[in-house]
Amino acid sequence: MSKDYIEESWGYTKYNSLNRFENLDSLEAKIVNKLVNSDNKYADIFWKILKYDDLNALSQPPLDKKARLNLINNDNGESNGKRVFLTPRNDDGQVDQCSSVYIYVENIEPINNTEALVGVTIDTSVYTKIGVIAGDGDKDSSENPEWVNPNESDEQGSVVVPIKSRATVLLKCILALLNGMYLDGIGYLIFNRFKEIKDDLDVGYVDMPHNHRENSHGHRIIFGVIMSGTSDDANVGY
Asked: CA 192, CA 181: separation in Å to the nearest integer?
């Protein structure tokens, strides 16, 4: 087989504008960056659940940016005190009796030669003994009464949701925060089935898998983002 034949058959010059996924490796970090810098109700609750392990987590002081950053596992060493990970869940890596979140790319399905649907998984884990938290439906005691859900009290103002599942509150916050979130240079993170994909790709659903430890539980939430980074060769520029 001649050298010329090999280059003609397999060289980049035979193809044009193929997806090089130029921002794939920054996806998880950009999601975390958005979570750190969000200042709405759901971000406030999200970080409180991760930081405070007691029953009254929702009535604890809010976390500033520095406190949020301290909860992110940003090296390969000791994970004590860390709550946010850019890896799949690993029982050996989580030693605290707490709530934690794991963010990672799980699957990719091509749409065409320039676009692909990337499945991003958010795993949550809640230690069973801290599985419930006090509700936040009392306007009189809330620091942000405008955030209180009116459906959590009756017409007389009495709270009808005194406790909540910590895992479900965390799930709600993740769905509210991330669904439709724009990631710079990548696109919109969407919780939905995608018409562009004919196969039954695992995106747009939530379940509670049975692969957690006996003393913890949590949800597996899968979002999708359509990604493109085209180039006619591997020299995409990044």
From this structure: 13
Q: Which residues is 153 bridged to in the sheet? A: 159
Domains of the chain (ranges; CATH) run: 18-231 (3.30.2000.10)
- Residue 97, both tokens: 């009796």
The pLDDT tens digits for 179-234 are 999 998 888 999 987 665 555 556 676 877 655 556 889 999 999 999 887 776 66
Q: Beta-strand (E) ranges in the chain?
A: 18-19, 84-85, 99-110, 116-127, 132-134, 163-165, 181-183, 187-189, 205-207, 216-217, 220-227, 230-231
Burial class of residue 106, CB neighbours in 10 A (0-12, 13-18, 19+): middle
Q: Which of 102, 183, 170 is nearest to 133 (CA)?
A: 170
Closest CA to 224 of 203, 206, 207: 203
- Tell me the two tokens of residue 172: 């709600």
* C-alpha neighbours within 13 Å on the C-beta side of residue 7: 3
Number of Cβ within a 10 Å radius of residue 196: 14
Q: How many residues would you count in the chain? A: 238
Q: Enter the pTM of the model.
A: 0.85
Six-digit token string for 146: 């405008």
